[in-house]
Amino acid sequence: MRVLGIDPGSRKLGWGVVERRGSKSVAIAAGVVTLDPQTPLSARLARVFQQVEAMIEDHAPDVVAVEDIFFARHPSAAIALGHVRGVVLLAAERAQRPITQWPPALVKRTVAGRGAADKSQIGRIVAATLGLGSVPPVDAADALAIALTHLASMHAFHPPTGA
């Protein structure tokens, strides 16, 4: 199973593709789409849509896993994030990919064993889990963690035969 994990943001959108090969998770690709906060939100949303469409086309994921909404201190930031998430969900739906959404605390618990793990800890654990030579950028690491969370949930509910 191949999962495209997405950590949406109105300034940076992290993404990562992870594939399950037997009992092992393998990183296929990851990156960060940087969005200029000086650019109108509508233009940033169009760019997010185009980039997510390209990711789906390039990497052919079986499912798109997205970080779920969380409480934000600044209402305007939360609204912008909601718009970005909506565009990501639309791109996945138009590509006819199943979509799952994962709360940030569950992603942290799944990857790091506790819901209060900090971003640098998540990055180090993701790099170690996937056998990466270096820690990916924060937003890409978060997206890879989201993909790993989806794979862990599938493994928990559908253990491999003969296990």
Report on this structure:
With 163 residues, the protein is an alpha/beta fold. 49% of the residues lie in helices and 22% in strands. A 5-stranded mixed sheet has the order 3-2-1-4-5. A hairpin with a 4-residue loop joins β1 (2-7) and β2 (12-21). α1 packs parallel to α2 (75-94), α3 (104-112) crosses α5 (138-157) and α4 crosses α5 (138-157). The longest helix has 20 residues, at 75-94. The chain is globular, with a radius of gyration of 15 Å. The two termini are 17 Å apart.
Task: Offer a quick outline of the entry.
With 163 residues, the chain is an alpha/beta fold.
Order of helical and strand elements = EEEHEHEHHH
Count up the helices. Answer: 5
| N-C termini distance | 17 Å
* Computed structural class: alpha/beta
Low-confidence stretches: 159-163
Q: What characterizes the major β-sheet? A: 5 strands, mixed
Mean pLDDT: 91
Q: Nearest-angstrom radius of gyration?
A: 15 Å
Give a topology summary.
Elements lengths: L1 E6 L4 E10 L2 E11 L6 H19 L3 E5 L7 H20 L4 E4 L1 H9 L6 H12 L7 H20 L6
Parallel strand pairs: 1-4, 4-5
Antiparallel strand pairs: 1-2, 2-3
Helix pairs in contact: 1-2, 3-5, 4-5
Could you name the key traits of this structure?
disordered C terminus, alpha/beta, five-stranded mixed β-sheet, 163 residues
